[in-house]
Structure formats: C-alpha cells, structure tokens
UniProtKB/TrEMBL annotation:
This is histidine kinase. One of its GO terms (cellular component) is plasma membrane. PANTHER family: SENSOR HISTIDINE KINASE TRCS, SENSOR HISTIDINE KINASE YKOH. The keyword Transmembrane applies. It is found in: Membrane. Keywords: Kinase, Membrane, Phosphoprotein, Transferase, Transmembrane, Transmembrane helix. It catalyses: ATP + protein L-histidine = ADP + protein N-phospho-L-histidine.
Amino acid sequence: MTRLSLRWRLVVAGAAAIVVALGIAAAGLAALFAGHVERRAIAELEVHLDQVLAGLTRDQSGRLLVAPPADPRFQRPYGGLYWQIDLAGDTLRSRSLWDHRLALPPDEVADGAVHVHRIGGPGDAPLLALERMVSLPAPLGGGRVRAAVALDAVELDAARNAFLADLAPYLGLLAAALIAAGWVQVGIGLRPMRRIGSRVAAIRSGRAHRIGEDWPAEVRPLATELDGLLAAREADIMRARARAGDLAHGLKTPLQALMGEAGRLSQAGDAAHAESIEAIARAMQRHVDRELARTRVAAGASASRCDPAEVCGRVIEVARRTATGERLTWHLDDVGRIPMVAIDAADLAEALGALVENAARHASSRVELAVRHADEEVSVAVRDDGPGIEPDLLEKVTARGMRLDEAGTGLGLAIAADIAEAAGGRLVLANREKGLEASLLLPVAAS
C-alpha cells in the first residue's frame, strides 16, 4: 500500500468505504423488507384466525366443530397454512397439519390478546404462528379455547432472498457509479499536485522562477515553503559565487608574484627553477579557472540562452589569433537554422574555448567546429586531425564518475564537462578516423 500513488490510495479507500456502506445498506434494507413482509403475514394470519374463530359451531351432540377457511392451503396436507384450536381435553386441527400438532409455547395469553411465535412445523419447517385465547359464548358451551394459525416461514425467507436478488444489480450499478464519481473527484482534487509538478519542471527548465501563490489553501503552504527554499538556494549560490570571485582575486596577485619571481630567476640564469615555478603557477591558475567556471554555472545555466553558432564563430576568431592557432586551418560547418541552447553565452564560450585549446594543441593542421540539432539537444562538436586519445584511456575518461583531469588529459576537457553538466548537458568524446571529436550535447532552450 505504501507504494501506491495518492490517487490509487484514495480511490481504493473510497471504493472500500462505498462497498462497506452499500453492504450495510443492503443488510438494513433486507431487514426492513423482512419486517414489512412479516407484518403483512401477521395481518393475513389475523384474518385467517378471525375466520377460524367465526367458524366455531357445535353439532347436535354438543361436539365443537370448525368451518374451515376458504384458503385451499388449509385443506392440502402440509400446504403451508395451518390452524389449531385447543380446548379442555380436545384439539381441533386443520387438514393441512395431517398428523402433526402445533407445538405452541406454554405462555399465558389474556383474552383477546395476540401472541406471535416462531415454532417448528411439519418436517421441521419453520412456522410463523399467531395465537389468541378466546372465551366462548354460552351458545357454544362456554369455556376458553386457545386458537392458533401458522404460516410456513420459508415463504417469508424466500421473499426476502428474492428482494435481495432483485436489489443486488442496482446496488452494483450504484457502487460502480459512486466509485467512478470518486475517481473523478480524486482527479479534480489532486489536479493541483500535477500542476505543482509541472511548475517545478518549469523552474528546473528555466521557464519559471517561483511556484507562486495561486494555489488552493491546502497546497499553498507547500508552495510557500518551496519558494522559500528556492530563494535560500539562490542566496547561497550568490554567496558562493561571491566567495569564489574573492578567492580568485585573492589568488591572482600571489600567482602574478610567482610568475614575476620565475622571470627574475630566469634572467639570473636559474632557468630550471624558473620553469618549475611557472609550471606550478600555471597549474594553480588552471585549477582556479575551473572552480570559477563551475561556480558561475551552478546557479542554473538553463535559465539562460544563447546562439551556439554565433558563439562558435567568436571562439574561432579568438583562436585564430593565438600563437598555436595561427598555424592551423579553422572551419565552421554551415549550420543552417539552429535553435537556442539553455546556457549562458559566456559559459558556452569558456567550454568551447577549453575544447578548442585542447584541439589546437594536438591538431596537425586543421580544426573543425560543427553545430547540429537533433530532437531536444544541440550538438556542438570540436574535431582535430591529431593523434586522438588511446582507446583504453578514452574509455576511462568517458566512464561515469571519472574525472577527466585524473585520466591525464589536462583540465581543459574537465572544465568543459563541468560546464556542460551544470547546464543539463554532457560532454562526449570519440576517436575519429583521424583525430578526436569532443561534442557538447546541450538542451534546447525553452521557447
């Protein structure tokens, strides 16, 4: 049950409640119907009892006789209707009783009072019996008689069962209608939950910045807390970016001082120590640049957008003017119409700059950039005609959880991968027939 969605939990619980409620209602209706049928049966028995008492006579010998009621069931053995009169020392019975005698309970009945009993009848069939104690008038010899009529209760039970059988299909239709109505009600009630999921997705993709206040009273506290969480996250990110900037500025001066010391050592003839210091300072600078890049895009690059072809053109123009780029041929494929991508132009330029720098360092004569659009992604590929990466090393650097700088490929690819992942994309490396292709796969910006 814990893994069921809220919709199914509510629907299942509602359906169970409906079934239980209709079951109780069916039991109550059956009891009411049985009571009604029994009251009608008692009324019928009272009529028969009056007929039996009205038919009491005495013959010439003074023997008490009964003119049987008109209902033929009194004449048919075990016909379902029975009468019996007990008087001092004698018992008169209907033909339907045959050789059976009604076993009335030994209770005291006042004159004219009526008692109703459930007793056993012929063949142990249950009977509904009605009895009355009557004082006979003088023409009938006086005295008191105990008169009783009985009806086969199986007929009453059959009537109740028939009523339930007729009622069951309607109860089933009612249960189905109520469960369907409950399903619709749950769907309407949970619609704000679907809306809040869509709003969170819009925030994630950059189409919105807050959950908002336009929610029902039950959902509004959740929306308010989420907005507060988003605001706190943005504040934390801004503080982190400010600290990263302060760190970068704080390290810039010491790094420049180290480079100056290396220059002076080189002029003094200690070239070996100068080169060692310069290498350490450059490595520190690259690490600082990487952390700055990761911090800058941490706020969610998907909220930004840029034209990838335009950024590629600017990166090529800059790369052509570098000492390494002057010796190479640069080419940008005719990209045609490409949608905007969900990343800041400066972040994309930095990622492409790292890939282009890596390609220029290993290329023999040519570097190509290509932009392609497929489904909801845009691929920005940088290709060189260098030696590529060893296949076993390529598998390592593309493995999940592997840091690119740990694989011996430098920090350029690592910085590009960090920027792409922060924007919701990824970096894909592949050896071509000649050279390496590094592709940034970036999500399309929301329109």
